[in-house]
Amino acid sequence: MRRRLRALAAALFALPLAFAAAPSAHAADPTTMTSGFYVDPDSSPKRWVAANPGDGRAAAINTSIANTPMARWFGSWSGTIGTAAGAYVGAADQRDKLPILVAYNIYHRDHCGGHSGGGAASPAAYADWIAQFAGGIGARPAIVILEPDSLGDYGCMTQAQIDEREGMLTGALTQFNRQAPNTWVYLDAGNPRWADAATMAQRLHEAGLRQAHGFSLNVSNYFTTAENTAYGNAVNSQLSARYGYTKPFVVDTSRNGNGSDGQWCNPAGRRIGTPTRTGGGAEMLLWIKTPGESDGNCGVGTGSTAGQFLPEVAYKMIHGY
After folding, report:
1. Which residues form the active site (predicted)?
2. Which residues contact 215 (CB under 8 A, 6 or more apart)?
3. Which of 1, 43, 79, 100 is most buried by its number of CB atoms within 10 A?
4. Residues contacting residue 184 through CB under 8 Å, at least 6 positions apart
5. Which of 25-29, 154-158, 285-289 has the lowest average pLDDT?
6. Residue 179: which H helix or E strand, with range?
């Protein structure tokens, strides 16, 4: 396994708040163990471009989306999860690149929203799945976004269900600590309009944030980087005041180039945002949601299913209309 050191300016990783950050769950920094982010060779836009080379939209989608590093999402569709995750991080490692993975299989996933409902069959099944996920990554460098929406999706849940969910997330973080020492795990914290900063700080802490490297914001949403940075800083202020620590955060910028119009499910007029870099108050700006993949049967994606690649939506996102 090659380890190519990359010097990253410390200032770009520093939180703008004057609080002492909690130690990372892992001593290793996967960004210094690789030579940049991994471009998924089998992403949905890559597959579409390969299958439609004569389409007038193909060149723009290939240049602006398909060749940009972005996350691969893993769930029940991934087959044997340890094998799938291991193959993906192994392919990235062979190229000395850093892969971004999303774990999206928690029991009662999207319980209140419904468009992406599903997940593991039980808490015990999830515990087994996530243990295999972490084991598949092993010692190779990776970034994992842990269960988007899971801490924002509380509106219809009972306290017992909330406790159960937070227990599953804590257990997941424990598995990554044990089995994936060179992985940075970001526990998802929703977006600026879902829960106020104090509420989200409490949810993060109760779900085991101390064990994670940090938290993620704006996954599959459209809020500007500035809005997310302000929210992330506010969450850290609450973490510091209540629990005595802060954590770095990342922002999903895949679809936030035009900001939000208040709609979350396939709104029109959105635009791709700045991909995969450091700075701006967040630790990293990442493409976590694939631009052009549907949020569900809604908005400009009416008639589609969640995760389905829609080339016309992707093409319009490049140009912002």
Report:
1. 149
2. 186, 187, 188, 189, 204, 209, 232, 235, 247, 249, 250
3. 100
4. 24, 26, 29, 30, 31, 142, 143, 144, 213, 214
5. 25-29
6. helix 159-179
76 touches 96 (CB < 8 A) = no
Categorize the per-residue pLDDT at 279 as very low, low, confident or very high, splitting at 50, 70 and 90.
low
**225-243 and 197-206 are packed helices; what angle lies between their axes, rounded to 10 degrees?**
60
DSSP state of 23: P
| Average pLDDT of the residues in 87-100 | 98
DSSP state of 196: -
149 is catalytic: yes
SS3 of residue 144 by DSSP? strand
Tell me which residue has tokens 């929210």. 231
Q: How far is CA 288 from CA 22, 68, 231, in A?
A: 24, 11, 18
pTM here?
0.91
Give every CB contact of residue 28 below 8 A, 6+ residues apart in sequence: 141, 181, 182
- Cα of 271 vs its chain's centroid, Å: 18
Amino acid at residue number 250: V
Does 204 score more than 60 pLDDT? Answer: yes
Decide if 311 contacts 61 (C-beta within 8 A). Answer: yes
Burial 217-230 (b: 16+ CB within 10 A, else e): bbbbbbbbbebbbe
What is the sign, positive or negative, of the torsion defined by CA atoms of 47, 273, 154, 201?
positive
What average pLDDT does the segment 73-95 reach?
A: 98
List 40, 93, 110, 149, catalytic entry:
149
